[in-house]
């Protein structure tokens, strides 16, 4: 397996942290980002205690200047990027589409949609420098138009937008060396999913790790448990 340079956002805990751990164990050079610098450095120390070395860059995906700074640091230190995993996300409140506020929707869109959009746009030149670049968006089955549900409208709508971006960016990059996919990690035992969730972080991270490292993958698809789902 060729060793890759892989960026994982929002990775100081939960699914993101487990994705970093699994990729680092495979010998890849992983860049871990977190909004809170102290929490990010603490995550790096936890991995170091397991004998795993990763690179940390602080990043709030809602701040364009921090995205630009991250791009510059990756360019200077690594010169290229193989994989971008857009994992950072928020889920706040449970309002449905009838009652959700514009403020709540904007807050979710800023992190869950505009963050991945702007980060992907900025890092595409670095992804183009690799043999095969990959963008992986962490989404949810709750955003599938083929299986709509109620509640958490701001979160769902932001992920519907992310799924749409996945399909569009894949088409716009057709013929290039970059593949774009999204995935549903399932209901995972994290701060967001809660202790009663049915899946472990190990299970939740598996498909992202597979999409990042598998020799051959398609583009413009939506996955769960390494299997393609309808949008």
Task: Describe the protein in words.
The chain is α/β, with parallel strands linked by helices and 231 residues long. The protein has one domain: Rossmann fold. 42% of the residues lie in helices and 16% in strands. The chain is built from six helices and eight strands. Strands 3-2-1-4-5-6-7-8 form an eight-stranded mixed beta sheet, sandwiched between helices. Helix 4 links the parallel strand 4 and strand 5. Helix 4 packs parallel to helix 5. The longest helix is centred in the middle third of the chain and has 26 residues. The chain is globular. The chain starts with a strand and ends with a strand. The mean pLDDT is 94.
CATH architecture: 3-Layer(aba) Sandwich
Secondary-structure element string:
EHEHEHEHEHEHEE
Report how far apart the termini are. Answer: 31 Å
Task: Please indicate the percent range of residues in DSSP E strands (runs of 2 or more).
Answer: 15-25%
CATH top-level class: Alpha Beta
Summed up, the domain count is 1
As for the CATH topology, it is: Rossmann fold
Strand order of the largest sheet: 3-2-1-4-5-6-7-8
Low-confidence region ranges = none
The main pleated sheet reads as: 8 strands, mixed
The helix-and-strand class reads: alpha/beta
Mean pLDDT: 94
Highlighted features:
6 helices, 16% strand, alpha/beta, eight-stranded mixed β-sheet
Please give a quick description of this structure.
The protein is of the alpha/beta class.
Describe the secondary-structure layout.
Elements lengths: L4 E4 L5 H12 L3 E6 L2 H12 L6 E4 L5 H14 L5 E4 L15 H26 L5 E6 L14 H20 L5 E6 L17 H13 L8 E3 L2 E3 L2
Parallel strand pairs: 1-2, 1-4, 2-3, 4-5, 5-6, 6-7
Antiparallel strand pairs: 7-8
Helix pairs in contact: 1-6, 3-4, 4-5
